[in-house]
Amino acid sequence: MNAASDPGPALLEVRGLSKSFGTLRALQEVDFTLRAGEIHALLGENGAGKSTLIKAVTGVFPRDAGIVRLGGAEVAPRSAKAAVDAGIATVYQEVNLLQNLSVAQNLYLGRQPTRFGLVREAEMRRRVTALLAEFDLHIDVAEPLGNYSVAVQHIAAIARAVDQSARVLILDEPTASLDRHEVEILFAVMRKLAKRGIGVVFVTHFLDQVYEICDRITVLRNGRLVGERTTAELPRIELIRMMLGRELAETTSERAATQARQAGEVCARFEDYGKAGYVAPFNLALRRGEVVGLAGLLGSGRTETARLVFGAERADSGSATIDGAPVRLQSPRDAVAHGFGYCPEERKTDGIIAELTVRENIVLALQAKRGLAKPLSRAEQDEIAMRFIRMLDIRPPEPERPIGLLSGGNQQKVLLARWLATAPRLLVLDEPTRGIDVGAHAEIIRLIRELCDDGLALLVISSELDEIVTYSDRVIVLRDRTHVDELEGEAVDVSNILVAIAAAGTAGAEAGQA
Amino acid sequence: MMQRLLQTRGLAQIIALLAILAIDRAVSPQFFDLRMQDGRLFGSLIDVLNRGAPVALLALGMVLVIATRGIDLSVGAVMAISGAIAASLADTYGLPVALAAALGAGLLCGLWNGFLVAVLGIQPIVATLILMVAGRGVAQLITEGRIVTFTAPDLVWLGNGAVLGVPTPVVVVIGMLIITGAVVRGSALGLLIEATGGNARASELAGIGTRAMILAVYVWCGLCAALAGVIAAADIMGADANNAGLWLELDAILAVVIGGTSLFGGRFSLALAMVGALIIQAMNTGILLSGYPPEFNLLVKAAVVLVVLLLQSPRFANAGAVLGRARQ
Amino acid sequence: MTSKALLAATALVALTLALPATAAELTVGFSQIGSESGWRAAETSVSKTEATKRKVTLKIADAQQKQENQIKAIRSFIAQGVDAIFLAPVVSSGWDAVLKEAKEAKIPVVLLDRDIDPSGKELYLTAVTSDSVHEGAVAGEWLAKAVAGKQCNVVELQGTVGASVATNRKKGFDSVVAKNANLKVVRSQTGDFTRAKGKEVMESFIKAEGGGKNICAVYAHNDDMMVGAIQAMKEAGLKPGKDILTVSIDAVPDIFKAIAAGEANATVELTPNMAGPALDAIMAYKAKGTVPPKWIQTESKLYTAADDPQKIYDSKKGLGY
């Protein structure tokens, strides 16, 4: 960890930045301060506003309100290129350089040294070689960039930015596709840049890396600034609490209702179930009338676990049994045949079929389960659709309306209806309340509990810890694509989940090799 | 008013067809005349139905493929193959064998396309381009580059005969339309195809075997194309591998698009695809009847297609509504 | 092929040129387009017979409709040191380089069936082709004679729009119509040289012309379209060959069957025997140095029911049509 002694002068100051997309307020009066020579982590869960902040600062999106000062002078770039010219460079996870051009050409793209109008290739190569040597990168710069690893490409992109006299360098998830050794190389480069007085913004979801290299941390949540701390003074659990939100005291009250419930017998059991490089093998038993929550940070393996359970990904280890009988879940079809249902996180791309009607969307899974030869008659379809429209209070109550025209909350209810119509034994809900307004939010939570009382087994993923605590009988905590802890009964509360997520264990290293 | 009318499903197509028939009547006064000739209805209207039969059959398969967000460029080549097979076998082995072999070949072609698209995940336009190019070569190998003629009367009947006065090709199309409609709408296939085309990822996660769906529609498309090929060969009592079905894949795609099925998949209509095929043929026949020099054929065709597609475009309908309001 | 072999081959050619060669020793390479049509197949088989008749060794290379294959074949013929090269060019341009190579190797080239761009005029010995304007005129003259001054409305089935053969066959026919006031082309549409289109277009002609009552004759740019048109006439209850006269071009076997059945009247032959005149020219050139004219026009022979069509059908059928 770098010593973050006295806070240097502010290099980049963002004050009161706001940005809305339609009715969605992506950023609300966010402040952000970057000092010269520091490495500053920008953290937050999905939808916290990290990307929006970067794009609003670098002129990719126009901002609604707020000012940005660089070295004391106000800047308002209108495009990413203008931002680079002003001294703010961004390197994204997918390096936006040209794979088929040489390293040298990429670094000098658009500003090649010329003489009499001709590009001086040799001169360019000499300069690029020297430039990369500063980053301890000794490669043949005449080779196409695409021939080198992602790490080298990242360093080349950083070198290009620095060479264009960047004073602020923003790295958006640069380590997501790097192995441990490549991360080390990149970190060495970042440290070297910081020493030169460049301010580095580091966006990541690897908390270990944050504690390894960052001087300071800014956390965003739901488009708002949660706070800014020095890394040395911020315990890991406190950081996670900042990211996931809500104070501990708020959450305990809701638990009472779930205590009385009696869990039934095990209906689905997964043993040593896993897939290399996807999710480490886990044991999971799901009982009738029980809600199991999956908690963890973004990228911890929650959705991956759900997809494995539902057969959307094939497990390469372990076994699954339903009511004691071994089953093979090779595809969603198999899972549906065994009475599973799955409401995915990405409603638009993985859930709804936008141009089909509410009725058709509701009967789809049931029809798939019955097979081609047993079509539901129109009367049956109408009956099913109307029953669920009434039961779940889907609005507007028009079965013939294309689902794409409904609000997010009502779309989610239709997807729930799709699975409830199949009379499932197990329902997997991935972020069932995401992007849904407050009213529908409460309704869906109420529904989850009712379903459970009816003897359904539920596996629910949510980033909202207080929500997960509200309805879960058990909570499984994931970290680095591994199931690391399981909380049951009295132990299910937000602080225990936070502790489990934060616990710096050996799990991270294992997952890296998986 | 105009907007609402044009957005009623199928109305734009029906209006377009009626308008083209009216124009046909204008350029050729005897257009609607009908009489019996050798036990067969005779007249320009019958020509439209009869000549439109191959494209209608192709469109019947194509509409399902397009509904899954695919496309089949090989149908013209499959026509050439099946025609060549039927013509080569008919005189020696009789119609049942010739027909079975020809349709079997179409089935295989469809399986091949479906395998490339559904199992190997190759883009449909590329996957079917392979057979589009190679298929005609296969047909030429079968016919050795010449027109293989036959005299087997039952095969000739398929192209030139009549059932209760209605030309056999038209009867075959109606039969296939009924069968396809029964299979697709009588079972859950139609819904599952529309779901697959609308959003394949979501459909897969809803438990639909999307691969099987896609394989099935290409097989059906191959079968329809093979039948169209047999009819085209029967019509001229010979298999012309160089020309049979040449560019008809484009007419079939056009028929489907005119019928209002989006190339982006999803909702489809068999009946409107048939109307699309009729629109194309009514236009072709009208051009032939008009007596204009053939240099104008393609120009007229392009203009008519443009107008028909504009009629269906929601934006155009909106613009029309706005104009209508402005006038009031 | 090594350069040494090439040298030897050239020497061999030089030798054969120096010593008046006898026919039996001639070897000719023939770069054929491919099997694009029945006529093409017939041309290939007739070429073989004509060569055998003259005791010439004919090496045929099938280019599968690709110019690059034809160029390869010609280079290979040059390397083998053949005595002459026959070329049925798939396209009209792009031959200059390879024909120059042949010229440098002193191998005479004869074009069969199709001509090339004028820039290559000096690079080949002669071209054996038919005159498609003349073909149209022969068809027209037969019709003029057949109706003998009576008023006659003609419908025309054109070849593919823009194809030079179609343009020329129309031009030749029109020249005769211009001279005969009793002949009038009332309808003209393209049938794309195919049976299916010929039939479809004829159906519309019949309907547009009072059920065929106003049509006295059909002229089709090729026999295939006519075969389709004959079917259309029969289906309309008309008697082709009697109610409506027919004349078309190419003389493929199926039209003889129709003539024999009395359903067609006349056809103008596009002879598949291009190799015969070409071989004669080459043999004279080799033996006595006789330089043939730059263009050898093949005969455009007219066939009618008087020419024993059944017999011609039988003999033609064996040619690979």
Automatic annotation (TrEMBL), chain A:
The keyword Transcription does not apply. Keywords: ATP-binding, Nucleotide-binding, Repeat, Sugar transport, Transport. It comes from the Bacteria. It holds the Pfam family ABC_tran. Gene3D superfamilies: P-loop containing nucleotide triphosphate hydrolases. InterPro entries: AAA+_ATPase (IPR003593), ABC_carbohydrate_import_ATPase (IPR050107), ABC_transporter-like_ATP-bd (IPR003439), ABC_transporter-like_CS (IPR017871), P-loop_NTPase (IPR027417). GO terms for molecular function: ATP binding; ATP hydrolysis activity. Transmembrane segments: none annotated. Residues 12-247, 261-505 form the ABC transporter domain. The keyword Hydrolase does not apply. Belongs to the ABC transporter superfamily. PANTHER family: CARBOHYDRATE TRANSPORT ATP-BINDING PROTEIN MG119-RELATED (PTHR43790), GALACTOFURANOSE TRANSPORTER ATP-BINDING PROTEIN YTFR (PTHR43790:SF9). Involved in beta-(1-->2)glucan export. Transmembrane domains (TMD) form a pore in the inner membrane and the ATP-binding domain (NBD) is responsible for energy generation. This is Sugar ABC transporter ATP-binding protein. It comes from Bradyrhizobium jicamae.
Automatic annotation (TrEMBL), chain C:
The keyword Signal applies. GO terms for molecular function: carbohydrate binding. It holds the Pfam family Peripla_BP_4. It is found in: Cell envelope. The keyword Signal applies. Keywords: Signal. InterPro entries: Peripla_BP_I, SBP_2_dom, YtfQ_transport. Residues 30-285 form the Periplasmic binding protein domain. Residues 1-23 form the signal peptide. GO terms for cellular component: cell envelope. Belongs to the bacterial solute-binding protein 2 family. This is Sugar ABC transporter substrate-binding protein. It comes from Bradyrhizobium jicamae.
